[in-house]
Design brief:
Length: 470
């Protein structure tokens, strides 16, 4: 089912990604390609330089950072992002000279390890060559990369891919300097667009390090920044933990440097999926089985000790715990949550609405993965980038159940209240919650999600444990 435009909306033209055309989106779940400025900001000492009209950068930041649980400016985000603020004069006479001056000023006054020029729609329409401008600085020894990220080319998932590929193409040497065994590069979620990216990436790095691996996580506090990016070709393997984001970068690294990659399409949540993920990685990289078994035994013992402690609560409160699940998220979190909710917690999955608008080829692969996740998952799956269509679909499927759990965004707030459903934030926009270290990856993530689900019955405000005892 393709996303339907709001009544009266004009259909958009087919975009540069080769996807089917969408109407004007209501209740958007992502930004335009220029939102990839947040990908750059997620690299320690990474500084985006925006070549676009006034307001483009601030609007992207407002949605992809402010609307992701108020995650803050970071090192050089928010109002600190340099922008050419193109005007009518630049449209008529070209803006490359203005951009060149902006990059010179940014290099002089901002302390960064990587500068990424991102082109907006205005630049893309008039044909300014941001890669040529970047190349002029790179040839002078400055770490500057240029990305043709005009907003009309696609959404910020697509923009994120452009940044990954652009850095690989323009920053890395042509040869492997030193192949390092048991060093892996990890490509997973889209920073900020995945509101839990910081916790999830830290968890991924920490868990893989227990296997004895050296992990280039590339983004966030756990990354060494530009040093990790320059060292991408030296890794033994690349690991993609996502249905499709990061695959193009892994393929490019394999093409240029011969680096093999492992694709794990289901984001692991909880003990069962995480242990299987570790086994898959260990087999691919060649980790000693005794090390693997020790890590899994330790993590599973801890996990199930906590899990069992919930048994009494679940028995006592079973009449109040939701049994139907409705997911509105991107493919990355949607598949992982569906797997955990159905196969670990026994939820009846009624909706799996994926909102990241992947290509038709990716949709087919996602459908294949979903068909192997358990009973009802494939039947619940639909791709709905339009929020209006997603809302209508949810309304029809929830009906008057009154015992549903919605895993979605701030857009689902009124629907949850109107159907007496539990709402847990897992996708953008998140404008009524604050996210700092929260995340649902791995063993700890599964425990945290159970806390949020079962504690949620009290947050609805109509029940307490004491009322059940009376």
């Amino acid at each position: 089912m393709e996303a339907q435009p709001v009544p009266g909306a004009v259909s958009a033209i087919k975009n540069a990604t080769g996807k089917m055309p969408l109407g004007i989106l209501s209740e958007p779940r992502f930004s335009c390609a220029l939102g990839a400025q947040q990908t750059v900001l997620a690299i320690p000492k990474g500084i985006p330089i925006i070549h676009a009209g006034p307001g483009c950068s601030s609007k992207a930041f407002s949605f992809v950072a402010g609307g992701a649980g108020f995650q803050g400016d970071g090192y050089a985000g928010g109002s600190n992002v340099p922008s050419s603020n193109m005007t009518e004069h630049d449209v008529v006479f070209g803006g490359e000279g203005k951009l060149h001056s902006l990059v010179e000023a940014a290099l002089e006054v901002m302390k960064g390890d990587l500068f990424v020029i991102l082109a907006g729609c205005t630049s893309g329409i008039i044909g300014d060559d941001v890669r040529k401008v970047a190349r002029s600085f790179a040839e002078a020894g400055h770490p500057v990369v240029g990305i043709e990220s005009s907003g009309f080319r696609g959404n910020n998932y697509f923009g994120h891919e452009l940044v990954l590929e652009g850095i690989i193409d323009q920053l890395l040497p042509d040869t492997v300097l030193q192949l390092k065994p048991f060093v892996v590069n990890v490509f997973a979620s889209v920073p900020y667009q995945d509101a839990f990216w910081r916790s999830d990436l830290e968890g991924l790095k920490r868990l893989l390090e227990q296997l004895g691996l050296t992990v280039n996580i590339l983004f966030g506090a756990g990354s060494c920044g530009i040093a990790e990016w320059r060292g991408l070709p030296d890794a033994q393997a690349n690991i993609v933990v996502s249905p499709w984001v990061g695959l193009s970068a892994a393929r490019k690294l394999r093409e240029r440097f011969g680096t093999p990659f492992l694709h794990c399409p289901v984001f692991p949540v909880g003990a069962r999926a995480t242990s299987e993920f570790l086994r898959t990685v260990a087999d691919f990289v060649g980790v000693d089985t005794s090390v693997l078994d020790a890590v899994i035994a330790h993590e599973e013992k801890r996990y199930y000790d906590y899990f069992i402690s919930l048994a009494n609560f679940i028995v006592d409160m079973h009449n109040n715990i939701p049994h139907e699940a409705h997911i509105v998220a991107d493919s990355h979190y949607g598949l992982g949550l569906a797997d955990f909710l159905v196969n670990d917690l026994g939820f009846d999955l009624k909706s799996l609405l994926l909102v990241d608008d992947p290509s038709l080829a990716v949709r087919k692969s996602v459908e294949q993965v979903a068909s192997g996740l358990g009973q009802g998952v494939a039947d619940a799956l639909e791709f709905l980038a339009d929020g209006y269509a997603a809302q209508e679909c949810l309304k029809a499927r929830i009906g008057e159940a009154g015992s549903a759990a919605i895993f979605g965004s701030t857009w689902e707030t009124d629907l949850a209240k109107g159907t007496n459903s539990l709402l847990i934030h897992v996708s953008l926009p998140i404008n009524d919650d604050v996210i700092v270290t929260r995340g649902y990856f791995g063993y700890d993530g599964g425990l945290r999600l159970m806390e949020d689900i079962y504690a949620g019955i009290f947050r609805k405000g109509r029940i307490s444990y004491m009322t059940l005892l009376q």
